[in-house]
Structures are given as C-alpha cells and as structure tokens.
TrEMBL record:
Pfam family, one: FAD_binding_1
Protein name: FAD-binding FR-type domain-containing protein
GO terms under cellular component: cytosol
Flavoprotein keyword on record: yes
Domain FAD-binding FR-type: 1-125
UniProt entry keywords in alphabetical sequence: FAD, Flavoprotein, Oxidoreductase
The keyword Cytoplasm appears for this protein: no
InterPro entries: CysJ-like_FAD-binding, FAD-bd_FR_type, Flavoprot_Pyr_Nucl_cyt_Rdtase, FNR_nucleotide-bd, NADPH_Cyt_P450_Rdtase_alpha, OxRdtase_FAD/NAD-bd, Riboflavin_synthase-like_b-brl
Top-rank taxon, per record: Eukaryota
Gene3D superfamilies from the UniProt entry: NADPH-cytochrome p450 Reductase, Chain A, domain 3, Nucleotide-binding domain of ferredoxin-NADP reductase (FNR) module, Translation factors
Residue runs in coiled coils: none
Listed cofactors: FAD
Amino acid sequence: MDIASASPRCYFFEVMSVFATAEHEKERLQYFASPEGRDDLYQYNQKERRTVLELVPPLKTRAFSISSSPSAHPNQVHLTVNVVSWTTPFKRKRAGLCSTWLAGLDPQDGVYIPAWFCKGSLPPPPASIPLVLVGPGTGCAPFRGFVEERATQDMSGAAAPIMLFFGCRNEENDFLYKDFWLSHAQNAGPLSIARGGGFFVAFSRDQPQKVYVQHKMREQSEWVWDLILEGASIYVAGSSTKMPSDVMSALEEIISKEAGVSRETAVLQLRRLEKNGRYHVEAWS
Ligand SMILES: Cc1cc2nc3c(=O)[nH]c(=O)nc-3n(C[C@H](O)[C@H](O)[C@H](O)COP(=O)(O)OP(=O)(O)OC[C@H]3O[C@@H](n4cnc5c(N)ncnc54)[C@H](O)[C@@H]3O)c2cc1C
Ligand SMILES: NC(=O)c1ccc[n+]([C@@H]2O[C@H](COP(=O)([O-])OP(=O)(O)OC[C@H]3O[C@@H](n4cnc5c(N)ncnc54)[C@H](OP(=O)(O)O)[C@@H]3O)[C@@H](O)[C@H]2O)c1
C-alpha cells in the first residue's frame, strides 16, 4: 500500500475522526472532512504534501522482563521472548510484530535495537528474604534473573532460599531453562532442598488432565506456608489472563488450610501481604 508518498484524501480524515479518542482531535478531523474545512485541509494536507505514514501514530513500545542478573552478566540484558503467533477464525496465520521481528534477527548482522529501561512492578528482593516465585511460560523470565542474582549473593554469604513454580505445555518442547533450574536445585543452590528451597514444574499437556502451577503449589501447601511464616515474599509473573487470579485463589486456600482460618480471613491475610510489599504480580496478555 502506498502509505509513504500518496497524499490522503478528505475521506481519510473522516474515517480517522471515528477512531480519534481525544475530543479536540476528533473535532479537528471532522472539521477537515467537512465542506467548511476544505480550504484549511488544502493548506494543511495537499500543500504540505503530507502522507498517511506521517499522520498515523508510531508503533507502540513492547515491554519485556529482564531475565538476567546484573551481577552474573554485567553490561548484558537477557530477554525471554515468546514468538507470538495464532490462527484466526478464517484460518489466517497471524504473527506478533515485535516478537517475530526479534526472532528473525541475526546477531551477526549487528542490527541496532532501540530499547529503553523502565522500572517494572517486581522490585528486586533483598538477599535475606525467602521467596515464593510463580512463573509459568515466559513468566519465568524475571525469576531467572532472581535465581542468578541469589546464586551470586550466595558466594558472599548465605542468601535465603527460593521456592520456584514453573509451568509449560510439554517437558519435551518448552521446558525453558531446564538445565539452569535443575543445576540451581542441586549442590546447595538457591533452589535446593538442602537450603530450604525447591523447584516444581507443571507440564500442562503431558497427561489427559491439565496440571498447572497452582496444582503444584497446593501439593506443597505446608512448605509454602512455612516459607511465608519465615517472611517470604511472593512474586507472580506470566502471560495468562486467568493465571494470576487462579494462583491467588490457590494461595488463599493454602493459607486457610495451613493457618486453620476461614477463607475470608485468608483473603485478608493475603491482602495484608500485598499491602506490606510481600505480594507482587506482573502479568501480560
Ligand atoms: C510488564 C510486561 C512484561 C512483559 N514481559 C514479557 C516477557 O518477558 N516475555 C514475553 O515474551 N513477553 C512479555 N511481555 C509481552 C510483550 O510486551 C508483547 O506484548 C509480546 O511480545 C507481543 O508483542 P508482539 O509485537 O510480538 O505482538 P503484537 O503484534 O503486539 O500482537 C499481540 C496481540 O495479538 C493478539 N493476539 C495474540 N495472540 C492471540 C491469539 N491467540 N488469538 C487472538 N489474538 C491474539 C492480541 O491482541 C495481542 O495483544 C510483557 C508485557 C508487559 C506489559
Ligand atoms: N506453539 C507452541 O508450541 C507454543 C508454546 C508456548 C507458547 N506458545 C504461545 O505463546 C503464548 C504465551 O506463551 P507463554 O509460554 O508465555 O505462556 P503459555 O504457553 O500460554 O502458558 C504457560 C503455561 O501456563 C499454563 N496455563 C494456562 N492457563 C493457566 C492458568 N489459568 N493457570 C496456570 N497456568 C495456566 C499453560 O497451559 P495450557 O496452555 O496447556 O492451558 C502452559 O502450560 C501462548 O498464548 C501461545 O500463543 C506457543
């Protein structure tokens, strides 16, 4: 389509006015599309040789969690990116713009990637605080960084343990960072039982019924509660729209069962944890 050289017609402004969300922009576009605005449109549009490309908004930025620790990889930032693709009801293949572009890059080409850093919603935890981390799929991204960081902190004194719940579809196909998690779950690593930590994985499609991270959490109910009593912070990250609320509901169940309180009291306790900065969620769809 000729979006970079053809000058848009009056109809373009009329259509754009339907989609404009800011009232002053809507009014201006409607004015340009009206007979009264014809002269002004000529001055603004044709005379200036404006193009459609110039008039549409720039691409929106995409956020990615940093999945490496600055101590383990100084001057590097690792990302864990899922290549988004799906089939529409009319069987057309669609692909995510940014993730597909990233996946097609060749590091040898030295392509410049414009990137910014901004503070996320998961604050870096101090080494002394035990952690319960829940990150299915690409939700494990920030927690790879957390585990790496803690493994580095271990070298300069005993850091607190981590319980990590990871989930994916199949053990064979998408068990992200398998060797990394398993190695840190051994030899007194931050995820090792010897240190009071643990690594638990739910393969959702390796058996007829679904197994999710929250099922694994319920299996470790007593242990999760012990770690909360020891002052653990809970972090949840991932892409599923339902996952964060399902995980929260599993935690309410765990608190209710292990503390022997009603569900309503468990809900209040979880809310208090959130208020005290001990429950964090970063979710995307
Ligand atoms: C705080 C934050 C952290 C994030 N961290 C990560 C991360 O660590 N790793 C990661 O991979 N992503 C992460 N994301 C998501 C990431 O920002 C992008 O949204 C994602 O990579 C898709 O971008 P894209 O340009 O490839 O897809 P786009 O071109 O933007 O397309 C995505 C859109 O396609 C549509 N779509 C996608 N799948 C389907 C489907 N099955 N059916 C119908 N429509 C569909 C939806 O409208 C969706 O919004 C994060 C997002 C946020 C907000
Ligand atoms: N083609 C592939 O092989 C493939 C593989 C991975 C990802 N993807 C694409 O990538 C997108 C995002 O990927 P992702 O890796 O971040 O996440 P994801 O694959 O969508 O999910 C990760 C895991 O979370 C499970 N899950 C789904 N609903 C949940 C819930 N309510 N509570 C707890 N766990 C839940 C999923 O199980 P179920 O999906 O079995 O329900 C899966 O095991 C997906 O939407 C998909 O389009 C494709």
